[in-house]
What does this fold into?
Amino acid sequence: MVAIKTHMDDTELLPRLEEHIRRFEAGRVDALWFPPELEACYLADTVTARGRMLLMQGLIGLMAYDFFTVGDYLLTPGRFMRAVVIRLMLFTPLVVLACLVLVWRRSAVLMEFGAACLCIAGAAGVLSINPGVDPGDQIGLIVMLLIANCILRIELPFAAVVSAIMLLMHGLQLYADKLQSAAEKWFAGGTLGWVALLTLAANYTMTRERRYSYLLQLRGRLQRGLLAGINAELMAISSTDRLTGLPNRRAYDERLQELWRVAQEREEPFSAVMVDVDFFKRLNDTHGHTYGDKVLQRVASLLQQALRSEGDFVARFGGEEFIVLLPNTDMEAAVKVAERMRTLVQVAGSPAMQKDSPFVPSDLWTTVSCGVATCLPGTAQDAHRLITDADNALYRAKKEGRNRSCRATDHYSVSKVAIFPVVSRG
It folds into this structure.
């Protein structure tokens, strides 16, 4: 499938694939080859299996070819040494060399061309053993036709050329023979011609079934791939908050359990930061929900920017609350992350309300409060207790004046520098 992916998408390929499958299912005698993109895909996907099959069947055919040396010894002892030289000393090393090339380089066209040439060479060897016409020659040519068209099942164009060349060689041998009558020559030539025709028909049928089976397998792979893509897309949608683009509460629950398990196995500290937008209800009431949505989107983006690495995780917890999970992080490092988030929001968390009023009044600048909690998984404390501690710390940050970060284990606020004055709003 790699070769075809550079030309068309699966959604474009599938309808065309169905069309070809219907054509094969109709049972008409039709061309076997696919359009260029699909043909390239077929060759790329089947070249390895085809190479293994040619290698195995070719060695079996070679053993059958060499076995006729016994018949040469029994039927024509005077030509036995000639048979040994042609079959064992010339043709056999040629086949072995071709097998080594086949293992070294897998090319669909090269494999079919090489197999066709070897079959022609084998037929020439059969005819070279006996200078005159011999019944064994015709048997040998029939065996070579069976090997080429039915055992090796070389592609139909190559099979047709191989069959034609064998018929031509046999016809020239019959033409040069002065001992047989015309009727005997026609019978011998006709017999080999019918064998060639029948084996080509069998080759067409087997090639057609092989290509039809590939189409069915390719359709199944494409359908499974499309289904997997749709499922992944649905899973992503179900795990993503539509407003902010952050993971939602469902994704957070799954990620919390995953990170907590890893922290337990590695015995590493684990931290959580609860983040809440200050006075968000008042902001919504003053400037409307549309502007409030922009604030949440801006805050979500800034929280992502404040994370340290891909291992950190931020999600929308609900409403104007966010949750940040920090694996392998102690309290001091978690507080630094919380302060970085708080400072970023204080500096850049207020989007312009409208074009003619690009600035937000100073008493409505967006700020956040953060609650930080840390524990070592594996103790009596569980993940839910950690989140509860972070939430309690957030509540204390709100109570102490907002726009600040508080630790769960201490009852004091983390020192901070207010870039903008915090206006008490009750």
